């Protein structure tokens, strides 16, 4: 009868009814938890940045690279040990928005599809969730760069 | 100390906006994170992301938007030297560390670990 | 040379109403086998299941194989209890949630019975009971096995996200149960009988969110239950229990409201849901259980036991299924749903 193209009045009525019976997530609690978690991740990142700047004699700018790589490692390890998803249940976007979330999506996919083999399982599925981030990052950067290059 | 405070607040704010989008809209994590990344690129083009990093340090480099910033910044920097071709050649220059780390660490982790039963 | 008039003059003798059949010699459910995972085993019905596995891998090399093992285990358990062998079975009616019904196919291979593969998603148990009863009452079989299974890990990796992904569940999301159930129906024998079967039509009331299947399926349950009551002339209170498959908390409430507003009946006094019965309040499972194994395991282990113990005399099992595919959601389609119902009586 129907696809996403047209909504019948009967469907519209039911959608409203269903919405009435659908619970709202605890927005405030989630927001506070995400703020704190995201803040803490950045604090850890700052600590690492300062550490690498001192240890490797890098400018804060350049020290960001090993700091990000370290956070990726931490995210990967927490995912591998099965701890990340439990933390994310509480922290929500606090863990998803930082680069730790990127690492988690990659490792989670690779682990889940390991049974499908190294090529198509690990290799093929690794970027199922993270791929969009890379694609839209590159495409945006391309047009921004192009614009700036031509307008100069 | 203020450096850590700034990092905490800005990093927290990025997460807060993401969380509100998760809870108040129908957007999936994929949508939100792609959007943040693209936003980073746009702010880079407007010259606004680097000042944010100067102010908040890791508060701005840890969120995924920083990835978008680095991609755009690499493209812009190389383009200013080599013209339009620079957009292509410079794209991954600044993000190379992050992407390489993600792929290598991701691969090794998948070998070492097993999904929980 | 049959004309339309001739056909209309001799309607099918066992059809009543629009979507319902009434059996002349109602077949009996003579034995059942149920196997569930550890979380389900810790739930309030844990002691009623035949086997509770130690983990979700069951010593197999993949979760898919674990699901097959559980389904086979349930089938063999039922056969042992009935004192029968696979050779005694005339048909196996089996379905599951995985692409191409792979679980059912490999299980049917192992058990070695002629098989009809079914896809009703979480409504498979009732679909199988209805069809199985038709085969028996129609004189086409002496023994029919109805079997289905679902597994949390295989369903998640097919429909949703990898297990370790840091994703915050919405409060109305349900947990796919790791459970398998098999039932043997016979033309003669002791056990609750399948007296009536109402076959559902596909219903779509505009719900897209695959994390809100309870809300998506409630209209299908309302449609089939109301049609069943109209076709049979029965009222809700003619049943000791009307059990839906896996509407869970919010779908259940929606069904009660739909019953009142669209059917003018009050289902609440007799209505329960297998998805609400499977897990305890203390278990973190969102709105409740889902999965084809949920209604099968709960019906075969708990509801039938209550009937044999005399607690219930007449039960309507109305299993509900969400018929979406992993890609239909991404294409922006609504979720088509269905509900199949069978009346069980002692």
* Annotation field: number of helices of chain B: 7
- How many structural domains does the protein architecture of chain B include? 1
The helix/strand order of chain B is HHHHHHH
- Pair with the most extensive interface? A-B, 78 and 76 residues
Task: Describe the protein.
The complex is a heterotrimer of chains A (152), B (117) and C (346). Chain A has 152 residues and is mostly helical. Chain A has one domain. In chain A, helix 2 crosses helix 3, helix 3 packs parallel to helix 6 and helix 6 runs antiparallel to helix 7. The N and C termini of chain A lie far apart (55 Å). Chain B is mainly alpha-helical and 117 residues long. In chain B, 79% of the residues lie in helices and 0% in strands. Chain C is 34% helix and 22% strand. In chain C, helix 4 links the parallel strand 5 and strand 6. Chain C starts with a helix and ends with a strand. Chains in contact: A-B, A-C, B-C. Chains A and B meet through helix 2, helix 3, helix 5, helix 6 and helix 8 of A and helix 1, helix 2, helix 4, helix 5 and helix 6 of B.
Brief sketch in words of this structure:
The complex is a heterotrimer of chains A (152), B (117) and C (346). Chain A is mainly α. Chain A has 8 helices and no strands.
Keywords:
heterotrimer; B: 117 residues; mainly alpha; 7 helices; 79% helix; globular; C: 346 residues; alpha/beta; Peroxisomal Thiolase, Chain A, domain 1; 2 domains; 10 helices
Could you give the topology of this structure?
The complex is a heterotrimer of chains A (152), B (117) and C (346).
Chain A: H1 9-21, H2 27-55, H3 60-80, H4 84-91, H5 93-96, H6 99-112, H7 118-125, H8 131-151
Helix pairs in contact in A: 2-3, 3-6, 6-7
Chain B: H1 2-24, H2 29-45, H3 49-56, H4 58-61, H5 65-82, H6 85-90, H7 96-112
Helix pairs in contact in B: 2-5
Chain C: H1 4-9, E1 15-16, E2 20-22, E3 28-36, H2 38-41, E4 51-52, H3 63-82, E5 91-96, H4 102-111, E6 115-117, H5 124-137, E7 143-150, H6 152-159, E8 175-176, E9 179-186, E10 193-198, H7 213-232, E11 241-244, H8 248-263, E12 271-273, H9 274-277, E13 289-290, H10 292-308, E14 314-322, E15 337-345
Parallel strand pairs in C: 3-4, 5-6, 5-7, 8-13, 11-12, 11-14
Antiparallel strand pairs in C: 1-2, 2-10, 3-9, 7-9, 10-15, 14-15
């Amino acid at each position: 009868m129907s696809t996403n193209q047209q909504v019948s009045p009967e469907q519209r009525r039911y959608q409203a009814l269903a919405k009435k019976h659908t619970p709202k997530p605890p927005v405030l609690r989630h927001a506070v938890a995400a703020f704190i978690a995201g803040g803490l991740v950045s604090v850890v990142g700052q600590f690492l940045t300062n550490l690498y700047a001192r240890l490797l004699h890098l400018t804060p700018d350049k020290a960001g690279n090993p700091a990000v790589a370290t956070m990726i490692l931490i995210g990967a390890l927490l995912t591998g040990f099965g701890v990340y998803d439990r933390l994310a249940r509480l922290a929500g976007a606090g863990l998803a928005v930082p680069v730790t979330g990127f690492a988690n999506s990659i490792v989670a996919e690779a682990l889940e599809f390991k049974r499908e083999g190294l090529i198509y399982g690990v290799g093929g599925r690794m970027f199922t969730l993270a791929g969009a981030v890379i694609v839209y990052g590159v495409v945006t950067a391309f047009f921004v760069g192009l614009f700036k290059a031509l307008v100069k | 100390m203020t450096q850590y405070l700034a990092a905490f607040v800005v990093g927290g704010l990025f997460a807060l906006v993401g969380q509100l989008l998760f809870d108040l809209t129908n957007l999936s994590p994929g949508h939100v994170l792609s959007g943040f990344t693209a936003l980073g690129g746009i702010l880079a083009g407007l010259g606004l992301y680097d000042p944010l990093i100067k102010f908040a340090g890791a508060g701005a480099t840890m969120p995924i938007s920083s990835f978008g910033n680095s991609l755009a910044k690499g493209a812009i920097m190389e383009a200013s030297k080599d013209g339009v071709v620079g957009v292509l050649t410079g794209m991954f220059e600044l993000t190379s560390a992050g992407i390489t780390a993600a792929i290598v660490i991701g691969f090794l982790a998948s070998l070492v670990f097993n999904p929980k039963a | 040379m049959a004309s339309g008039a001739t056909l209309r003059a001799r309607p099918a003798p066992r059809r009543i109403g629009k979507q319902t059949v009434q059996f002349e010699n109602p077949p009996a459910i003579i034995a059942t086998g149920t196997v569930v995972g550890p979380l389900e085993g810790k739930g309030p019905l844990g002691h009623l299941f035949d086997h509770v596995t130690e983990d979700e891998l069951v010593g197999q090399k993949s979760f898919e194989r674990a699901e097959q093992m559980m389904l086979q285990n349930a089938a063999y358990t039922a056969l042992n209890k009935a004192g029968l062998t696979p050779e005694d079975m005339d048909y196996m009616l089996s379905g599951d949630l995985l692409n191409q019904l792979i679980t059912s196919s490999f299980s049917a291979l192992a058990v070695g019975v002629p098989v009809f593969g079914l896809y009703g998603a979480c409504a498979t148990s009732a679909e199988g009971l209805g069809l199985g009863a038709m085969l028996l009452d129609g004189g086409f079989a002496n023994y029919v096995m109805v079997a289905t299974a679902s597994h949390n890990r295989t369903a998640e990796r097919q429909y949703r996200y990898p297990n370790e992904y840091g994703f915050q569940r919405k409060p109305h999301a349900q947990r796919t149960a790791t459970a398998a159930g098999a039932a043997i129906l016979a033309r003669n024998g002791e056990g609750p009988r399948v007296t009536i079967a109402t076959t559902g039509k596909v219903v779509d009331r505009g719900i897209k969110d695959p994390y809100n299947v309870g809300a998506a399926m409630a209209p299908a349950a309302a449609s089939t239950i109301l049609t069943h009551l109209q076709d049979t002339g029965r009222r809700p209170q003619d049943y000791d229990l009307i059990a839906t498959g896996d509407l869970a908390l919010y779908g259940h409430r929606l069904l009660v409201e739909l019953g009142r507003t669209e059917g003018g009946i009050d289902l609440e006094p007799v209505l329960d849901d297998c998805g609400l019965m499977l897990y305890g309040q203390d278990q973190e499972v969102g709105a409740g259980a889902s999965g084809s194994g949920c209604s099968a395991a709960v019906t075969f282990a708990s509801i039938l036991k209550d009937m044999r113990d005399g607690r219930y005399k007449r039960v309507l099992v109305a299993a509900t299924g969400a018929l979406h595919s992993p890609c239909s959601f991404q294409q922006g389609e609504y979720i088509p749903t269905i509900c199949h119902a069978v009346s069980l009586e002692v």
